[in-house]
Specification:
single chain; globular; 10 helices; binds zinc ion; Nucleotidyltransferase, domain 5; 5-stranded mixed β-sheet; 337 residues; alpha/beta; binds 5'-O-[(R)-(carboxyoxy)(hydroxy)phosphoryl]adenosine
């Protein structure tokens, strides 16, 4: 089964071709970062319009790189949510129409399912069951994964997502959008001993997160400092340490609670080097495996959607001729295969 995957939930247009026998055949990504940079964040209407411009050219590019034509496709998968509704509708409309025109099945994919299955695109993929830490611009979740569509949310954020906290911290420090990579780069030059930031909600049991207090703490620390480049780097470092430590503490609890021996880490923030070091060290100490997607597939991409869609289409799941997009979509409500 050869599946075209289309991702347009936020500010990246991602398209990929995945074959159930041969694996990933081609993928292409267009990032809208430059488009939104001057506004300091994603402007939804601009995002939708740019997906309209970029999706079909990327479909052509992916097919040509794989040496295939539209008629070689067996199915289409598109991200149907959660995300920006206008942006989602572009990918859903194009994906559903292509499938209709070609007379092949189409399947709606949950963006976070795409993220959490992304490590399965790597050689020697992790086996079910595992615990997934999903850390992106919109989500911070710990999920017990029994199989495809068998998800139990163990913990969620009560306020900001961790990627959002990185983005807001970047803004405060005068860094560009998206903030995660910029904060991480500045933190490299910071002194880890100068400041100690709180590890929110780690002093009580449970697996939920809260990052808005950390954001306020960052702002207060910045205002009390001399505002020098040195101080900003030290603040970035303390922020990153606090985030990595908080996530690690909760991952350890989730692994203990589930009794599973694999932790999968996915979503944009899974690209963070310090978080990876911290979780790798914890896994070694506690005796569990930690698995990530390749760096390019931590952030949004079409490959994870093509992969997730292929699993569902292979199992016989697909949509009728109508399509829907959902800004919000409960991960636990998905059908299992
Ligand atoms: O998964 P993703 O591409 O999009 C969403 O589904 O939200 O995640 C984007 C988020 C942004 O908040 C970005 O700042 C963050 O991931 N991010 C990082 C890094 N790379 C991306 N955060 C920390 N360190 C990084 N290296
Ligand atoms: Zn994402």
């Amino acid at each position: 089964m050869r599946v075209l995957g289309i991702e347009t939930s936020c500010d990246e247009t991602g398209v990929a071709l995945y074959d159930s026998e041969q694996g990933l055949l081609a993928d292409a990504l267009y990032s809208q970062v430059a488009l939104h940079a001057e506004f300091g964040g994603v402007v939804p209407e601009l995002a939708s319009r740019d997906h309209v411009r970029k999706t079909l050219p990327l479909v052509r590019e992916v097919l040509s790189r794989a040496g295939m034509r539209l008629t070689d496709l067996d199915g289409v998968a598109y991200t149907a949510g959660p995300g920006l509704i206008g942006a989602l509708l572009v990918g859903a409309a194009i994906g559903r129409s292509l499938a209709f025109g070609l007379g092949i099945p189409a399947v709606a994919v949950h963006h976070m399912e795409g993220h959490l299955l992304a490590p399965l695109l790597e050689p020697n993929p992790p086996a079910f069951p595992f615990v997934a830490l999903l850390v992106s611009g919109g989500h911070t979740m710990l999920v017990e994964v029994g199989g495809i569509g068998r998800y139990r949310v163990l913990g969620d954020t009560l306020d900001d997502a961790v990627g959002e906290a990185f983005d807001k911290t970047a803004k405060m420090l005068g860094l560009g959008y998206p903030g995660g990579p910029a904060v991480a780069a500045l933190a490299e030059q910071g002194d880890p001993q100068r400041y100690r930031f709180p590890r929110p909600m780690t002093d009580r049991p449970g697996l939920d997160f809260s990052f808005s207090g950390l954001k306020t703490f960052t702002l207060n620390t910045l205002q009390a400092s001399d505002g020098s480049d040195r101080a900003k780097a030290d603040i970035a470092r303390a922020f990153e340490e606090a985030v990595a430590d908080t996530l690690a503490i909760k991952c350890r609890r989730a692994i203990e609670q589930s009794g599973f021996s694999t932790l999968v880490v996915a979503g944009g923030v899974a690209a963070n080097r310090r978080l990876r070091q911290r979780l790798d060290a914890l896994g070694q100490k506690q005796g569990f495996n930690v698995r990530y997607p390749r760096l390019d597939f931590c952030t949004d991409n079409g490959a994870m959607i093509a992969y997730a869609g292929c699993q569902r289409l292979t199992a016989g799941q697909h949509e009728g001729p109508a399509f829907t997009a959902r800004a919000r979509w409960d991960l636990e409500a998905l059908a299992s295969i």
